[in-house]
Amino acid sequence: MPHVVPHELVKVAPRHFISDELNIYRPRLDRFWSEEEINEIEVEQRDLIKWYNNDQHIEHIINLYKHTVSFNEAWTRLASLSIGYANFAVGWQRLSQTQHRSNRISPF
Fold first, then answer.
1. Distance (Å, rounded) from C-alpha 89 to C-alpha 77?
2. Is the pTM of this model over 0.85?
3. Helix (H) or strand (E) segment spanning residue 87
């Protein structure tokens, strides 16, 4: 299962995010997103790490809710800070739901 919530994404180095997660799930993402939108997800993940490391308020918001809120609530709270990530949230949510359904159908 890919990292899908902000407090997990800030801990994954961009190169590992791309090679270990995004590229593995790219065939599934291609069904929902254009190449440009997928590239934007890469940029947004890098930006999220920068914001987290350089802004104590954003770091606090991400860490405060890491175990107590749902996927949607975590991204809604982050989006309320006006720093974006709409593509990221929607794309990763779709990927997560697809992966979850796949796991129920087949153990492979």
1. 12
2. no
3. helix 86-105
